[in-house]
Write a structure and sequence with these properties.
alpha+beta; Phosphorylase Kinase, domain 1; Transferase(Phosphotransferase), domain 1; Jelly Rolls; eight-stranded antiparallel β-sheet; six-stranded antiparallel β-sheet; 23 strands; 22% helix
């Protein structure tokens, strides 16, 4: 690799590190008379628009949050060959990965670092952002007048909570990512980051090496080093529970539990456990063509199509669309089973990754979520940087739907969120729809008219 002399207005001094998607250089900023880190998109990814947009999204997100527990962005620019770069605050203390490579941290220091990591992740959660890739490489140290600070870095996989639900492809680092992140239909929320915090805790406080297989496979009492308060083990077991519902709800709750454990106070009760879920099997079936009862758009009619099924949930498919799904990954009903859900699209397997591909995520909430009501359910699913039209109500297929349409400057140009009470059963129907580019409200209503529960 040839070291550049300059990147924009910044004089390059040396290489800091390389990753799958970017290279980071230490550089000097003559204008501010200080060192900075310059992150440049890797050349082999420069023509991939999705990777390029993800690179820029990270810079925009860090710039918008602008918090002293997160790596700060000073500027963005573009090289003569078109590759984008971001100018970041330099973390002169290196990464947690670097420190752990030199040996385990003393127990008191390791507990303090874990507490500070949780505080940084809590900043993201308060802004309704989930990191999705908490690893030792993404925890940095920066020295300042008040001492050393822990910084959370690499938000390239971070998502606004609404966008992380039912839309994300597999993402994360094996050994640290939550089980639900391995499913393209997963509901990935703050509890996925809690799992990552628990795995980081095991790496910092465990007897040996980075965490590997499921925590439950490890013998009781053998995981943590001598000197770690016994109550900390219970906190980490809760954080790394396989089911999201059994974990701490967010980073703030994890941090409070950790502090109580270290101080010797009573541990909070673990989340209420529902019955262990029965493994879901593929529940999507294509049946005989059925006529749609709702109105269709003149250009994109929701007309005689196949039917997608997931348990009691059925969806009449627009012409040329297919359905796939094994259930609403990460979301469980009161009976402990996966909630019914599926993805419908001309190409369901690629819908999560291709922002220009029309399609929809359709789910039936039969557990606690149904009790929030349609309006409140949708209010918890905003889309960052998108503009929402006023909510509208429409009766389709016997369901009173509340519909919110978002217009977005990047990624999917239009996202439609809709929810309504299931007819004839206790449940809440939810649809997140990306319509074809020239489709109107009639297309949306036609899709909603074909959603049934039971």
């Amino acid at each position: 690799m040839i070291t550049p002399t300059w990147i924009g207005a910044y004089r390059v001094e040396r290489l800091l590190g390389t990753g799958s998607f970017a290279t980071v250089w230490l550089a000097y900023d003559p204008a501010l008379a200080g060192r900075v880190a310059v992150k440049v998109l890797a050349e082999n990814w420069s023509h991939d628009l999705r990777v390029r947009e993800r690179f820029l999204d990270e810079a925009r997100l860090l710039r918008r949050l602008d918090h002293d527990r997160l790596v700060r962005v000073h500027a963005v620019g573009e090289l003569p060959d078109g590759r984008p770069y971001a100018v970041l605050a330099w973390a002169d203390g290196g990464s947690l990965r670097d420190r752990l490579a030199r040996g385990p941290l003393p127990v008191t220091e390791a507990l303090s670092v874990l507490d500070e990591i949780a505080a940084g992740v809590a900043v993201l959660h308060r802004h309704r952002v989930v990191h999705r890739d908490l690893t030792p490489s993404n925890v940095l140290f920066h020295s300042g007048p008040d001492g050393e600070r822990v910084l959370i870095a690499d938000l390239g996989l971070a998502k606004a909570l609404a966008s992380a639900s039912g839309l994300t492809a597999r993402a994360g680092t094996p050994g640290y990512m939550a089980p639900e992140q391995d499913d393209p239909l997963a509901v990935v929320d703050t509890r996925a980051d809690v799992f990552g915090l628990g795995r980081l805790g095991l790496r910092l406080l465990g007897r040996a090496g980075p965490p590997g297989g499921p925590v439950e496979q490890r013998p009781a009492g053998s995981r943590l080093r001598p000197g770690v308060p016994a109550a900390v083990d219970a906190v980490l077991r809760t954080a790394t529970a396989v089911r999201p519902a059994d974990r701490h709800p967010d980073a703030d709750a994890f941090r409070r539990a950790l502090r109580r454990a270290v101080a010797g106070g009573p541990a909070p009760p673990p989340p209420r456990r529902a019955p262990r879920p029965v493994p879901a099997v593929a529940a999507v079936a294509v049946t005989l063509a059925v006529a749609v009862t709702g109105a269709g758009d003149a250009i994109h009619p929701v007309a005689a199509g196949a039917v997608g099924r997931s348990g009691p949930l059925t969806v009449l498919l627009p012409s040329g669309w297919r359905a796939e799904g094994t259930g609403w990954a990460g979301r469980y009903g009161d009976d402990g089973r996966l909630e019914p859900a599926l993805v419908i699209s001309p190409d369901p397997g690629n819908w999560a990754a291709d922002p220009m591909l029309p399609g929809a995520f359709v789910g039936l909430a039969t557990g606690a979520a149904r009790r929030t009501g349609p309006a409140a359910f949708l209010a918890g699913r905003p889309h960052a940087d998108c503009v929402a039209a006023p909510p509208r109500r429409t009766r389709q297929g016997g369901v009173e739907w509340t519909v919110v349409t978002y217009t977005c400057p990047t990624g999917r140009p239009v996202i439609v969120e809709a929810a309504g009470p299931a007819t004839g059963r206790a449940g809440l129907l939810y649809v997140q729809l990306v319509p074809p580019p020239d489709a109107g409200a009639d297309f949306v209503d036609g899709v909603l008219a074909g959603v049934r529960a039971g």
